[in-house]
UniProtKB/TrEMBL annotation:
Descriptive protein name: Major facilitator superfamily (MFS) profile domain-containing protein
Species annotation: Bionectria ochroleuca
Record PANTHER family: NICOTINIC ACID TRANSPORTER TNA1, PUTATIVE (AFU_ORTHOLOGUE AFUA_3G03820)-RELATED (PTHR43791:SF18), PERMEASE-RELATED (PTHR43791)
A GO cellular component annotation in the UniProt record: membrane
Chain ranges passing through the membrane: 42-60, 80-97, 109-126, 138-158, 170-189, 201-223, 274-293, 313-332, 344-362, 368-391, 403-425, 431-452
Keywords carried by this UniProt record: Membrane, Transmembrane, Transmembrane helix, Transport
Pfam (any one): MFS_1
GO MF annotations in UniProt: transmembrane transporter activity
Domain Major facilitator superfamily (MFS) profile, chain residue ranges per copy: 42-463
Keyword Electron transport: no
Cross-referenced SUPFAM superfamilies: MFS general substrate transporter
InterPro entries linked: MFS, MFS_dom, MFS_trans_sf
Localization: Membrane
Main location: membrane
Length: 494
């Protein structure tokens, strides 16, 4: 067998399209080895950053029951307002941030964001009243906004479509880990009450904020920017990874744009793609339910009869369930190369949990209530990752993917504004509005998933019926690349 044929067989084994310009072929074992090199250099750093990101936005829930509400004389509506203003700036800065990311070095831009929001969290520890707390939350949302869409997009520039979600799951599940770890950390730090004359809740913000600043200062030195710039890959490995991404369109020989210059039409293409807007409803099933839950879980458990300290600790197993379900279902989804069932099934679990929480009398059965709480992170965390990977799989070229993913995350995080205001203090311990609204949006997310899957399926079927001859008669090779996911040679992931 000649050398080119051998390369072709090896590439086919890796589901890489065959073309004349393939730089070099690696067998499956070598390809896994190369991807592991990327995994070890990229994923842990993003996980560490996301842990600090989630700690810094959600530690206000721990600070509340550690004395913040009493010291600042916060009413229930004022506390909800402090949660809400974070999202007002968070959702507006995500698209501009990802546009900056595309024209600068990701490591430097992300480091700037991390250091800045860490400084703001530290200052949150010395606020004197409700209005100064609002101010810090507004700026915290502004500078945290760029990280999650930046990290999500960065992963799409390194991994092919069915390698993405399993990596995203490890990255995103660190948020569930952070939620659980936040309880342990807050429990430990709150014991510093009285040190330097400060309350324990103030030390939660100060210590976690200062740690974030240190991590942000280091990240610019270690975070890989792009395949072309890193030193831990050989030239052949760089060429091979870039080639796989270039032809990762779902159809052999169909090229995907990855280095195209910015044009305004990519912005309008993303804003006008109704699939992104429909997918945002799927995101709301996560953001509305989980943001409301994250901020209220310590209080819910506290109201079951546990002390504040034990309530902090009892949040840890809940988020452990979220970590396990996210990683298991994401790896499963990548292996079977399909997305939509891995959104519908876990949301059904959450749906049943909300029905149970609405049905039982509170706090009559604290053990049952606590058990049902597991369904919220356990069923609510995995769908977002699956939908994020699904959308990243189905957006091209790279500028549209960058803007589209940021738009999706931006719209989805509007759910944080809603979620911050549905668990009402005057409804404790039943939280009819919180559990009821969460149930309704979960059902809507399931229906949106089914609708999105049907649309992609219809588009693929139509493109399958279009012959190569028809395509070549109507489009040049350059036009097909510019069309991105609208190309007749592009196939959507279901």
């Amino acid at each position: 067998m000649d050398n080119q044929s051998e390369k072709a067989k090896q590439l086919e084994a890796e589901n890489v399209s065959i073309a004349d310009d393939v730089p070099i072929a690696f067998d499956p074992a070598e390809t896994k080895r190369i991807l592991r090199k990327v995994d070890y250099r990229l994923i842990p750093l993003l996980c560490i950053l996301y842990i600090f990101s989630f700690l810094d936005r959600s530690n206000i829930g721990n600070a509340k029951i550690a004395g913040m509400a009493d010291d600042l004389h916060l009413t229930g509506p004022q506390y909800n307002a402090a949660l809400t203003v974070f999202f007002a700036t968070y959702v507006t800065f995500e698209i501009p941030s990802n546009m900056v990311l595309k024209v600068t070095r990701p490591s430097r831009w992300i480091a700037f964001l991390v250091v800045t929001w860490g400084t703001i969290v530290t200052l949150q520890g010395i606020v004197k009243d409700y209005h100064s707390l609002l101010t810090t939350r507004i700026f915290l949302g502004l500078f945290e906004a760029g990280f999650f869409p930046a990290a999500s997009f960065l992963l799409t520039t390194w991994y092919c479509r069915f390698e993405l979600q399993s990596r995203l799951s490890v990255f995103y599940s660190s948020a569930a880990f952070a939620s659980g770890f936040s309880g342990l950390l807050a429990f430990a730090i709150s014991n510093m009450a009285g040190v330097a004359g400060l309350g324990g809740w103030r030390w939660i913000f100060i210590i976690e904020g200062m740690a974030t600043v240190v991590i942000g200062g280091l990240i610019a030195l270690f975070l890989p920017d792009s395949i072309e710039d890193v030193k831990f890959l050989t030239e052949d490995e760089k060429k091979f990874l870039a080639y796989r991404l270039r032809y990762d369109s779902g159809v052999d020989g169909a090229e995907v744009g990855s280095k195209e210059p910015f044009q305004w039409r990519y912005l309008w293409a993303a804003l006008g793609d109704w699939h992104i807007w429909l997918a945002a409803i799927i995101y709301w099933g996560n953001s509305i339910c989980l943001y409301g839950f994250n901020y209220t879980a310590p209080t819910i458990i506290n109201q079951l009869g546990y002390t504040a300290a034990n309530a902090q600790l009892l949040t840890v197993p809940l988020y452990g369930a979220g970590v396990i379900s996210t990683i298991v279902l994401s790896i499963w989804s990548d292996n079977v190369k399909v997305r939509w069932p891995f959104i519908v099934f876990p949301y059904c679990v959450s749906m049943l949990g909300f029905v149970g929480l609405l049905s039982i009398p509170h706090p009559k059965y604290p053990g049952l209530t606590y058990g049902l709480l597991f369904t919220i992170p356990g069923g609510g965390y995995p769908p977002l990752l699956t939908c994020l990977a699904w959308l990243g799989n189905n957006l091209a070229p790279s500028w549209k993917r960058s803007i589209g993913m940021a738009l999706f995350i931006s719209i989805g995080n509007v759910g944080g504004i809603i979620g911050s205001n549905i668990f009402l203090a005057n409804e404790a311990p039943h939280y009819w509005t919180g559990y009821g609204f969460s149930l309704a949006i979960t059902v809507c997310a399931i229906l949106a998933t089914i609708g999105l899957r049907k649309s992609y399926q219809i588009a693929n079927k139509h493109r399958d019926s279009t012959s190569d001859t028809q395509i070549e008669e109507n489009y040049s090779a350059e036009e097909l690349v510019k069309l991105g996911d609208r190309s007749p040679r592009y196939r959507y992931v279901l």
